[in-house]
Amino acid sequence: MFRVLIISLLVFMIAACSDDQIDKVQKDHVWKQQTDMIDKAKGVESMLNDAAALQQQKINEQTQ
Fold it and tell me: CA–CA separation, 11 vs 16, rounded Å?
């Protein structure tokens, strides 16, 4: 009987810690502003790399 009670309590505690709570904690951390800026910088870097590749392609087409 005691084992059933302990197992039931453990299952209940595990179920109470849902992924929603974990996701919320991960989204609202202390460094959120800094990590958001890093993500934005990565997007800008990708855009600049694409523009540079396109410009290099145009240069190569003109020289050939």
Answer: 9
3-state SS record for the chain:
CHHHHHHHHHHHHHHHCCHHHHHHHHHCCCCHHHHHHHHHHHHHHHHHHHHHHHHHHHHHHHHC
pLDDT at 20: 60
d(Cα 49, Cα 56) in Å, to the nearest integer? 10
The rounded distance, in Å, linking the Cα atoms of 37 and 45 is 12
Q: Residue 12 corresponds to which tokens in the numbers above?
A: 């209940």
| Neighbour tally for 4: CB within 10 Å | 8
pTM: 0.48
